[in-house]
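Hi R.,

Here's the chain you asked about this morning:
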Amino acid sequence: MPTRLERDSLGTKRVPTSAYYGIQTFRAVENFPISGLRMPVELIRAYALIKKAAASANATLGELPRRPASAIMRAADEVLRGRFDDQFVVDVYQAGAGTSFNMNANEVIANRANELLGARRGSYKHVRPNDHVNMAQSTNDTFPTAIRLASLMALPGLFEAMRQLETSLRRKARAFDGIVKSGRTHLQDAVPVRLGREFGAYALAVRKAREHLETTSRLLRELNLGGTAVGTGMNAPPRYRRLAIRSLSAWMRLPLRPAQDMMERTQSLGDFARVSGALRVYALEMIRIANDLRLLSSGPNTGLGEIDLPAVQPGSSIMPGKVNPAMPEMTDMVGFQVLGHDATIAYAVQAGQLELNVMMPVVAYNLLQSIRLLTTTSRVLASKCIDGITAHRAHCEASAYRSLSNITALAPKIGYLKAAALAKEALKTRHSILDLVVAAGHLSRAQAKRVLDPHRLSRTIG
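And the predicted structure, written out as tokens:
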């Protein structure tokens, strides 16, 4: 492979001639052959925006000549369009703080800017990675800013997917509203409920999780860009911070703002833990709902069998005709993974020392991965599972009439102990609650039918 010789503060090294990255990125590739994982594209796009905003601000302030500034901005635009995604080659698990990734961005943009100005890659004749592309910046303010911007880019897709899942659940809630069934608590028979109410409750849980995440994610709009190394703003002109953030705000169409305290924002990754916590809440709700779907569809002949899930693939390599709840099973596994991401983020967030938390790369990867997983899973669960669910009305209603807990409606009239005795007798003799209530003389048959009617009992009071 043809190579070119590049130099940094540690010495010289040969870099592939075709590469847009440079010597510091190449060192990181050699030093960290850890996982083969790369940072999500949202982080690449966020970094391109930051470098573009920095060049614009520095040019406006007269710190960076217009010609190289323009070339940097053009190169950043090409990164934004995805042209150089394959040039971001640093492993997720790298040196602390994300310096390697920041330099990867600096070098790719610098080399492309030099090309645009008529110089060859690796010459850095007109634009240098540290002096020009990284002007008025540090990894310590650009990387946390990039995580924030990348998350803000990714989250609207998740919000849309959550709305899609909520809508699918609400459609089923309306479709199943007239179907009465036995409720269950402790996995034992409880008083009657409507199948539609169960699905309506699932829809509300998804909506609440989305609203919580939307509120929490607004914390990400506060940026420490311009704080440079430790939050003091050293080497950044006084007006640079507001100019750069104003540009970012306009390009992202979001009300971004400078951090209230640059040092606090550089020290603390707490906002990422808060957003990850909101993602965790949604993952927990999805796991719970998926597990309910597995229970409700269990059987079909030896389980609850109240609903059928769409058959998306054969369920067994040995048992003919078997169909499994594949989509809820997948949802569970994704949920477990998101919980693992959240635990990783929690450990990383508490691992900061003094003026910096260097665990930012693993926070970035896990946070963005959680958003991506929950986005795709929400869409797939809605379209390939929820939308195609059908209910077994007769089976549901039969269980509602058989439930011993219907006697609860009579407890205010005859007392808890007498009602419990009737329930035990019904279980022992296999007689219906209605027949026993009439035989005991508590109510006439007409009265008992009205009082114990599951349709009436399943109505919401108030």
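DSSP finds 18 helices and eight strands in the chain.

Let me know if you need anything else.
M.
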